[in-house]
Amino acid sequence: SVLAWLISKSISRPLQKLCSQIQMAGEGRSAQINEIYSLSELETLKRSYNQMESKIREKEEEKKAFFFQNVSQT
Prior knowledge:
By secondary structure, this protein is mainly alpha-helical. The chain has helices at 2-26, 40-73. The radius of gyration is 18 Å and the shape is rod-shaped.
């Protein structure tokens, strides 16, 4: 049972951290995840999150640039 507990902790801690990052992104405080995970599924999830976060940040910058461009034209 100790082994099962250790294995579950090695999975649950990274998932909790990923969930925390996703919640922060939902609040507009996004940031890339730089940790390295031992499970390939967690690494895949991290890469997907980082791609999503980059796209969101990119779109936000485009939106700001468009807004300021329109404001400066009036």
